[in-house]
Task: structure prediction
Amino acid sequence: MKTPRYHCAACGRVHRADRPLWRCDCGGHLNLAPGGGFRRREIVATDASLWRYAAALALRGPPRISLGEGWTPLLRRSWRRAEIHFKLESQMPTGSFKDRGTAVMLNHLIEVGVGPIHEDSSGNAGASIATYAAAAGLPCRIYVPAAAPRAKLVQIAASGADPRPISGTRQDATEAALAAAGKSFYASHNWQPFFIEGTKTLAFELWEQLGFRVPGNILVPTGYGSNILGLERGFDELERGGEITARPRLFAVQAANCAALAAAWAAGENRFVPFAARPTIADGIATPRPIRIAEILAALRRSKGGVVTVSEEEIAPALASLGRTGLFVEPTAATAGAALTQLLSDGTITAAQTTVVVLTGHGLKAADRTGELLGMGGG
Ligand SMILES: [Zn+2]
Result:
């Protein structure tokens, strides 16, 4: 395949994706050039992982490392008398949706000769990258907020990576990782474009699992927006391949206490708007400053979807309702259930439409906090 190219969103410079790169020399973030069309006949139906869509991925060859990521269950459950499809991204090898992006990003970086890596994360991406780095034999260091759920820190440590808990906010962990760039490669899932190349396979999977049909609505807990951007990219490629003509409405779900997208959306802006961030139990989407905020907002507008915010008080009931249908998820993922209740109640979504709720992280990721949410007290 031809060497893929990155475009800098700030200065417009084009870079060949033939070496480890996480941003432009000017400091701007990079986006992969649009992919070609993807067609049904290119699916490797015998492969029960995201690699069934390998023909659509901008990689040079077959994966050097895989832990069986992708091809997660899509289950139907009744929610407020509507039949809803729940996509269990929580059932990935490391228990969160991040493995789609991590697997494709690390395989690209290995192809172009990466050495030791580091990353910053609220927890799930760190656990994912630490685990895949272990599988690939790459030395790895992860900067995480010291207040991240313990299970996520334990997961990072168990992979043999070097966890660096940082006091302060999620942004402080990012600053620590930025400061370390140069000592090792900053394999940032929020900066490196191949992470979104991986999350685009979510679009292919939903389309295939729904009988090669596009759903009407997709709800996604959203911080840095890699699932929204992956869905946009994936459905683009299906449209370019002539497989679909309609597009789903994409709804980004945010915790009201930390809602950068909602602030920009409410102001009618397509760029970052300052807002006051407060703590939230939905630690996985507590993102004060999304890097690709303009691209996310554009994708939501194009899809005719929007941004939904949920209060802290709405998260525990949604988590309990999901649990009672057999879906055990972490509080961050439960925000999507709370948003679904809102959108069904106000008529934005109706029972006649096909709706997918993406459950992004497993309940075991934050069992202690979930116990507190459910009123179980200290263990
Ligand atoms: Zn640039």
